[in-house]
Structures are given as structure tokens and as C-alpha cells.
Design a protein that fits this description.
Elements (H helix, E strand, L loop, with lengths): L2 H4 L5 E3 L6 E3 L5 E3 L4 E2 L4 H13 L5 E3 L6 E3 L12 H14 L1 H25 L1 H14 L1 H14 L1 H18 L1 H19 L17 H9 L25 E5 L14 H6 L5 E5 H10 L22 H4 L1
Antiparallel strand pairs: 1-2, 3-4, 5-6, 7-8
């Protein structure tokens, strides 16, 4: 087989409106069975239909079902021959008598429809998101009530979706991952001191954005560090798969706080006090209390010997 036969044949067509030659996939089918396509490209045809639908239709029309003359456009949907009440009855009866055919058609075209929907979404992503945000802003009360009821009626599905979203974002989005880590760490420290975040965002109390924190840490990365190997220390795998953690240069135990408004909180989470550090070294510093003000020599703890772990022992 020649290279020419192997290459996919490219078919083009000229739009009668914009007069631009485009790939045939830019033209919707008029009759898919015989492969006949529209003379206007998809974008031009959409504008044409929009302008056509805006034209005010006046007068009367006889319904093909009930035979009653009714007004346009109030009693008819676009160019349908049946009036709205008759069309509703017809659609309801059709669905009731053709359920198996409808289910089979939906199943057969499911993948194709999803593919087309994804292409359209990617091509018009910004406009779709903006339109959705505008609608939610204009219907805040209704949307809030709807979301609340949906979560109540779909608790397990909501939990599963939320978990999958969080895992995916933590895996693919360093900013989301860092934001989640900081929130969890601060929340845990507050709970340890019999306090809480009180449903407030930690970023409201930090003098920097999460992007600034990310840049601050990345500027101190060692060559082997990345957002993919942040995590706990595992002795068995560390040599081949080292990990790192966010370290407080002045330890958290020396900066006690019970509120995010405390001065100790600001000092503890100041950019100058944060750095990326090997998870192994961070563990060693914590056990040996290398940078801690409070020391606990063996003679101060009666009956409990303390073993000081050194680099040699860890290795």
C-alpha cells in the first residue's frame, strides 16, 4: 500500500456565507445517510439560525393535530406543525410507546454525543464558563437551595465525587495541593490547642497568597525536589524515592498559638520561617530537638530513658 493510500483523504468545502474554504467536518450534515452537508459552516449556520429565530412571526396557523387556527408565535414552537398542547401530548405518547427504541438509540450514540460535547466545550470553554457564572450570580438563592437539596438527597454520590475531585486536584494541581496542606496543618495545630479555624479561611490571615508561597518554596528546592515527591518519611523507600516536607525554621512547638490572630501564628507561618526540607532530616531535627528552645535532658524525666537518634542510626 502506498503512502498516499495510507494518508487520510482531506475533503474541503467553501462556506457560502463567509466564503472561506474549510474542512468538511466544519459543516454539519443535512442528510447523514447520503453524506450531504450544509452549505454554511457551523459558525455561520448558527448565526443564520439565530437571526432567523429572532424574526418576529405574526399571524395565525392551523394546528395539524386539533385543526384549530391559533396565533403565531405564542401557540407554536418554532416551525412545528402542531400547537404546544398537541405537541406535548404527542411527545408524551411517543416516549411511552417507544421506550426501548429510545434507550437503544441513546446507548448507541452516547460515546459520539460525549465526544461532540467535549469538542464544543473546549472550543467555547471561556464563553460557557462565563455564561454559567452569570446565570448563577443572577439566581444565587435558587442555586444555593438547589445545591443544598441535591447534596442532602445524594450524600454518598457527593462524598465520592468530592473525594475523587480532591485526589485529582492534589495530584495534578500544585497550588491546590499546597493550599490543602496548609489548611490541614493549621487546622490540626489549632485543634491540638483546643481551638479551631471557626470555618474561616487560613489565607485571610496569612500576609501572602498561595502562589507567593509556592514560588518561595520552589526557589529553595534542591535538584531532586518536586511537588510529586512531597510526603512523609519512609525508611525502606527513602534512598530510592526521597521525600520532602514544609519545615518551620523556628519550630512550631516554640510558637504556641490558639488563634490565627495571634502574633505567634504570624511568626510561625511567615515566609521567612518556611522552607522545603528533606523528610528524613526534618524527622531527625524533631527527634533531637535540634532547633528547639526547650530541651529535655534525661535527668529531667524520671524513669524514662531518651534515645537520641543520629544520622548514623537512621542510615
Amino acid at each position: 500500500m502506498s503512502n498516499c493510500d495510507e494518508e487520510k483523504k482531506i475533503v474541503t468545502q467553501v462556506c457560502i456565507t463567509c466564503l472561506i474554504e474549510k474542512d468538511e467536518t466544519e459543516f454539519a450534515f443535512r442528510n447523514k445517510k447520503i453524506g450531504k452537508r450544509h452549505y454554511r459552516c457551523r459558525s455561520c449556520y448558527a448565526k443564520y439560525r439565530q437571526e432567523h429565530d429572532k424574526k418576529e412571526r405574526k399571524g395565525t396557523k392551523v394546528c395539524l393535530a386539533c385543526g384549530i387556527e391559533k396565533s403565531l408565535p405564542d401557540d407554536f414552537n418554532k416551525d412545528q406543525g402542531k400547537c404546544k398542547p398537541c405537541q406535548y401530548v404527542y411527545d408524551k405518547e411517543y416516549v411511552a410507546t417507544h421506550q426501548q427504541e429510545i434507550i437503544a438509540y441513546r446507548e448507541a450514540t452516547k460515546d459520539h454525543k460525549k465526544e461532540v460535547a467535549d469538542i464544543r466545550y473546549q472550543a467555547n470553554k471561556e464563553a460557557i464558563l462565563a455564561k454559567g457564572k452569570e446565570w448563577r450570580d443572577n439566581n444565587k438563592e435558587w442555586y444555593a437551595e438547589y445545591s443544598k437539596n441535591w447534596i442532602i438527597n445524594n450524600k454518598e454520590k457527593h462524598k465520592k465525587t468530592a473525594r475523587e475531585y480532591t485526589r485529582r486536584q492534589r495530584r495534578e494541581n500544585p497550588v491546590f495541593k499546597l493550599r490543602s496542606l496548609i489548611s490541614t496543618r493549621i487546622g490540626g495545630m489549632l485543634r491540638a490547642n483546643d481551638s479551631s479555624k471557626k470555618s474561616m479561611s487560613v489565607m485571610s490571615f496569612l500576609p501572602y497568597s498561595i502562589e507567593e508561597l509556592k514560588s518561595h518554596l520552589e526557589n529553595q528546592f534542591e535538584p531532586w525536589m518536586s511537588w510529586g515527591n512531597y510526603g512523609r518519611y519512609h525508611a525502606k523507600t527513602f534512598d530510592n524515592n526521597p521525600t520532602w516536607q514544609i519545615d518551620h525554621i523556628v519550630p512550631q512547638s516554640d510558637l504556641h498559638f490558639s488563634s490565627m490572630e495571634d502574633d505567634s501564628f504570624k511568626k510561625c507561618w511567615a515566609l521567612e520561617n518556611l522552607r522545603p526540607l528533606s523528610a528524613k532530616q526534618n524527622l531527625l531535627d524533631g527527634v533531637n530537638r535540634t532547633r528547639h528552645k526547650k530541651k529535655h535532658p534525661i535527668e529531667e524525666i524520671k524513669g524514662i530513658p531518651i534515645i537520641i537518634i543520629t544520622n548514623e542510626i537512621m542510615q
